[in-house]
Amino acid sequence: MKSIMFYNSKGGSGKTTLAVNLAAYYAKAGIPTTIVDLDPQQSSMQWLDARPMSKPKVSGTKKFNKLVKRAKNAVVIYDLPAAIYGNKLTSYIKKANIVVVPVLPSPIDMKAAKEFIQSLRAMGSVIRNRVQIGLVANRCRAHTNIFLELDSYLLKEKGIKYVTAFRDNTNYLKSARSGLGIFEMGEAMTAQDREEWKPLIRWLGIK
Ligand SMILES: Nc1ncnc2c1ncn2[C@@H]1O[C@H](COP(=O)(O)OP(=O)(O)O)[C@@H](O)[C@H]1O
Ligand SMILES: [Mg+2]
Questions:
Q1: CA nearest 116: which of 10, 4, 5, 40?
Q2: Domain membership of residue 182 as a residue range
Q3: pLDDT in tens, 167-200
Q4: Disulfide: which of 20, 83, 149, 193 matches 47 by Cβ 3.0-4.6 Å?
Q5: How many domains in the chain?
Q6: Ligand 1 pocket: which residues have CB below 6 Å?
Q7: Separation of 159 CA from ligand 1 center, angstroms?
Q8: pLDDT lower than 70: segments of the chain
């Protein structure tokens, strides 16, 4: 079983957006997929509510400890709220094999991401060695200076993988409204998004 957690201490960085899109991708690939929505705002659950019955099933729960029996190839995706720190964050991170940190290309967001990475490193070697951390830049407008700054900042962080960058684009608003993922929308319309997803999907692997 693979356990993937989306976290950033800042709200609005794209945790939910990426969590639900990844869930849709795995479900479409025939993998039993569950979203654990730990955010009181319940945005992932709202996406699930909007999801058409005809689409591959994504299970959802609000309970952190609910899942007991899971298939070997199952994927569990945790959508965390912002501003979780200390013991609570540690107890969440303990459940993860992989933590994906979406970062917006702004100085404030980069600083927050840096602090979060430092707090992960302070959690002790057991967690540090067991959990892989991947950063993804989100809502980028390519070729702006701030994007280049984020790019070089992310590349400098040792032991942290800079996986991919997602553009700012309205397909994600459509995804949120319709309960669909990028990979379930028109191919021509989402061609660039699919390219941007490839490195993350490859890095996460399927098993
Ligand atoms: N790559 C993107 N392009 C356009 N809009 C995005 C993108 N990523 C996220 N958004 C939008 O930004 C807002 C915040 O994203 P969300 O995933 O809810 O963040 P978080 O869960 O970290 O608080 C939402 O309205 C979402 O639709
Ligand atoms: Mg959210």
A1: 10
A2: 2-204
A3: 999 999 999 999 999 999 999 999 999 999 999 9
A4: 20
A5: 1
A6: 11-17, 43, 138-139, 166, 168-169, 172-173, 176
A7: 26
A8: 66-69, 125-128, 142-151, 153-155, 157-159, 206-207
